[in-house]
Specification:
The structure holds three protein chains of three kinds.
Chain A lengths: L2 H18 L11 H5 L10 H9 L3 H5 L3 H4 L5 H5 L6 H14 L5 H16 L4 H11 L4 H13 L13 H10 L3
Chain B lengths: L1 E4 L10 H13 L3 E4 L14 H12 L6 E3 L2 H13 L3 H10 L9 E3 H8 L15 E4 L19 H8 L3 E3 L17 H17 L4 E4 L2 H9 L1 H8 L7 E3 H8 L4 H4 L9 H13 L1
Parallel strand pairs in B: 1-2, 1-3, 3-4, 5-6, 5-7, 7-8
Chain C lengths: L2 E6 L11 H9 L4 E7 L5 H13 L4 E6 L2 H14 L7 E5 L1 H5 L6 H20 L7 E4 L3 E5 L3 H12 L3 E5 L14 E2 L4 E2 H14 L3 E4 L2 E9 L2 E8 L14 H6 L3 E3 L8 E3 L1 E2 L11 E2 L9 H5 L12 E7 L1 E4 L3 E3 L16 E3 H8 L20 E8 L15 H15 L4 E6 L9 H10 L3 E4 L4 E5 L2 E8 L4 E7 L1 E6 L1 E3 L3 H8 L26 E3 L9 H19 L3 E4 L4 E3 L9 H5 L5 E2 L5 E2 L9 H5 L5 E3 L4 H11 L9 E6 L3 H10 L8 E6 L7 H9 L4 E6 L10 H18 L7 E5 L5 H18 L4 H7 L13 H4 L3
Parallel strand pairs in C: 1-2, 1-3, 3-4, 6-7, 6-18, 7-10, 18-29, 20-27, 21-22, 21-27, 22-23, 35-36, 35-37, 37-38
Antiparallel strand pairs in C: 5-30, 8-9, 11-12, 12-17, 13-14, 15-16, 19-28, 24-25, 25-26, 31-34, 32-33
Helix pairs in contact in C: 1-5, 2-3, 5-17, 6-7, 6-14, 10-11, 11-12, 18-21
The chains are: A mainly alpha, B alpha/beta, C alpha/beta.
Chain lengths: 179, 281, 801
Amino acid sequence: MSAVTAAKDMEFKSEVLRLAGPEMQTCIQCGTCSASCPTAHLMNPSIRKLVKLCLEGRKKEALHNETLWLCTSCLLCTVRCPRGIRPKAVVSALKDIAEREGVRGRDASYEEFFLKQIKSNGRIAELPLTAEFLLVYPQAAVQSMQMGLELISKGKIAAKLERIEGRDEVKRIVEELRE
Amino acid sequence: MKLAYYPGCVSLSTGKEMDISTRAVCAALEIELEELSDWNCCGATHVSNEQVATGLAARNMAQTELPIMTPCSICYSNLRSAVRRLEDLEVRERVNAVLEKKYSGAAVRHALDVILESLEKKDERIVLPLREMKVAAYYGCLLTRPAGQYSPQFPTILEELTRRLEAEPVELRHKTACCGGPIFMPREDAADDIAFAILAEAKEAGAEVIVTVCPLCHLMLDAKQRALEQKKGQKIGIPVLYVTQLVGIALGLGPEELGLEMNSVSPMAVVERAYEKMAKE
Amino acid sequence: MPTGVYVCHCGLNIAGVLNVEDLKSFAEKLPGVAVARDLQFSCSDIGQEQIQKDIAEHKLDRVVVAACSPRLHEPTFRRAISKAGLNPYMLEMANIREQCSWVHMDQPAMATEKAKDLIRMAVAKAELLQPLEPESIPVSKEVLVVGGGVAGIAAALDLADAGLHVFLVERRPTIGGYMALLTDVFPTNDCSICVLGPKMSEVYNHPNITLYTYSEVLGVEGSVGNFTVSGVRRARYVDEKLCKGCINECASACPVEVSSEYDFGIGKRKAIYVPYPQAVPLAACIDPKACIGCSRCAEACPADAVRLEQEAQDFKINVGAIIVATGWQPFDAARKEEYGFGRYRDVITTLQMERMLNASGPTKGEVVRPSTGEIAGSIAFLQCVGSRDATVGNCYCSRICCMASLKNAQLVKEKYPDTDITIYYMDIRACGEGYEEFYIRAQKLGINFVRSRVSSIQEEEGRISLIYEDTQNGEIRRAKHDLAVLSVGLEPDSNAEVLGNLLGLSRRPDRFFEIAHPKMRPVEAHIDGVFIAGCASGPKEIPISIAQGSAAAAKALKLLHRGFLELEPTSAYVDPDKCIQCKLCVDICPKKAISVKSPAYVDEAACKGCGSCAAACPVDAIDMRFFSDQQILAQVKAATEVKREFPLIVAFLCNWCSYGAADLAGTSRIQYPTNARNIRVMCSARVDPSFVLEALRQGADGVLIAGCRIGECHYKDGNYQALQRVNVLKGVLEKVGLDPGRVKIVWCAASEGEIYAQDLREFIAELKAMGPIGTELKRRDGGQQPDLAQPGNGPEEGEKP
């Protein structure tokens, strides 16, 4: 590894530490997080290894993996970690960095559309969100149709797009607070 | 009691019955709700940047001086996390620099806790005691996490409320396990497996009703139940009620007041059984 | 008052930077100085002899040595002058090495000027020194040991054998502590009670030990050498002397059965019971919470020893020292909800395992599944339950659990060779003589080790199911066992809180009692005459607890064996005519040395000379025998007499931390500007606001007060008190129109030389921005002098480069 890439990787490490908290450095690789995770069996690297990758500054491996997008935000890892680390916050930090650096994919798109809708309307409506998502990931169509039919039959799809008064303020929150 | 009410985005769509029943039950219990003016989305589980998530929550909380109640566990968890982060004065200053109304502290409560507090033991407003009804308490993740008022892994407040309605709580091993909801769009199979495990356990435990406190859990267990049954080839057929719907039934509120007809798996048979039982007694 | 001044070269350490010749001739001209010399090495024999010779020849009655830090050689020079017939307290040192030559190496001229000020300050203080005589007080040669576990037993026996009388007070009805309940103990797997039992009997039979079991300490008064301790001996409802310890006659008649605390919930006892067969004293007692008062035990007792009407008895004793050996309690495993202790019967703790393995325990040595009573064929040990775990607030390692599980696993394996045993661990900590070998032995016995931390336990199909990640191969697994043993950590005994409060003991963040120094004083408390042994100050294995018990005994013996105590004559004293009995000092004293008599009275045995009371007294009725108001004010005046640089800073440094930090900056050769004139005080709380005001009035541009880091004060919280006073002072400065920034308080540990230097640099920069003292008044009033400033000492005069 050249000195230049090493320096850049350490920059990545400190960015993750800044976003997810300095406790991360105290990780003892005990695996409590992985063994608490409901989707751990699908993850590679495991959440435990993901923390290690960040601490070693291995940016590429830390950002380009399925693990980030399999996190359900259930926070079991976070309430159980014996070092007070918040593994879910590590995942969020990595997603945030990935999104900022333009990492693309179906999962990133879903999050992107979600945030875009908040930014422009202040609230979320499932219908347009799903529609936009299906454009990038048509494989979800069957499920969405099934679900859509179920919800429409119960009158639970919002008919009109809700837009709040304070849209500009919300837009500023999204743009200015995200450094 | 007067509270600010934060319904959350789903109250306008997939969680309409949550909103309807919350308003109805609060009215019946004389809890006055004042909807937060011009509230915005809390970001759910899809805003990765904590500062942004904190800002979104802070804008909502800055709209009122009253304690804020929400029936949605995701909103609840997000507001609570934000309150904690905003204790850091540096964070607060940064966030307030962007906000029009400034955040200066807030009290956040889940509807579950508000309702339990307003119900007396042997409350005479419970006109339909749910005797012998086997209710599986399913908390999901975000009512109790990050750690706060309740045990983050083995809470008992839903069981307590169930008992107060004279129903019989069914303990689920999975009661604070994840429902898979946050990843169900892009990661359907993973989410389905997780959700089905909960339904299967409730079935095995003999639950007649599953009670939830989160619209995403509700979506996974109720709206998706039929699809999951087909996919896994196992009949479940357990109605999934919001806690506000369950309380509403016991308070004698009608199906339309509680949005019961909006549930995918109809709870009407269970409700009728309760009425029949009462009539016999 | 002929004073001798000695300027040390210290080889080139001082002379390489400072103009020693110049300093010597400067000193010669100071008032009261009879002789001044420069010495190559003042601390050497030759140097000391020169001083002693001068004392005789020039009839010196006080000596100033300008050399290294008084923290280094003050005792040396005190001894030297005392050999020449002077009172040892007639010495003052000017620190021109650590706090001058070593830190101003690149500015020799300015450094020499600073050294002159330091010498002038030392001579001014020396003028006011008074001979002090160490006072001695008679002390009690009796010792209280609280806690009858292995540490307390070791302490009591050593003291008693050495001829001191011991009162051993134990909360439970028997001594022996947790060690008496264990099965075999590591690393030799010998029987625990077999080695402890004889010691317990020895305590019981020792003529120099008075044993109070089932008793508690409820009050402590007095101070080192003379504590008055009161307490209560709870009623056993059995006459201890009459009871024959036959164990079963009374208990078998008793109809009430409850869970036995000595078996940790897996065994039962009756309402009348002997804790275990080896209990000392071997006498029954009745649990009043369980007893229904049926008197069947009284009828059954062949010795007629049951006394249902017995009442608690108070006791009051006088002791010279107190040894706190209050021990530990197991972590409550139910707090780790994910492990299901209390929900699943086959999840047990180490202590329950110990009792099961114990041949006289509730299962007679069989290791069974509590749910079925069958022998457990597959056992999991989970390490670090309640230790190294931030979620339960215990970040520390409990130190004994790895070894305890290795030992229990070996015992099971030896008894039932076919048992499948797995230890789930994060790190195996086997640091001790023979410990790593013990680990290897366990591995060779075929015990499995999985590096993981179990995330949760569930019961599935009647078995215990563990979920974990094997972190060595990255696989997430579920493993089924018959029995899971939670290796619970050690917490401080919650019952010891009362005693801790009575004695004023401080606690570390881990809640164990804090010792006076984490390395150098391992069995001493912050309070004189109080010692701490065993697990009261943190988790420890048996041999170390015993060593600490003996060490505490030796410390107590050293303190008391002569029958009197020599007191450092540096304490506070009250001028009874001035005292207005406001009691401010009583509340503020960290050693509880001042009593509310009228007028206030300082217990000089307890006083450690921090001086906070002297600073707090609103009418100046309290002064210190050493570091007196007059002496410090003389130093302030001398420091500001000639103002050669701007900004001129008068700095008060506490003896323990910040003065140490300034010394360390010197030994580390950290370079910083010469502006500060340091005055050593025992504690930052000694700094009377009047010292600060006087310094500013005399023309100092700023005053720095430096104390130990918050939470680390050597007198508990003197630095908080200093902070409060500084805040008030800032208000005063603002009122008179001075910039409140001219007084600054900072914290540095003795290890933080760089921080001290940095704080000083920052303060200098701040003062430069403010301008010389009085600038702000001129700006405001167009040149009017401040109330504090005196003509002739104006800022302009001193404003030379």
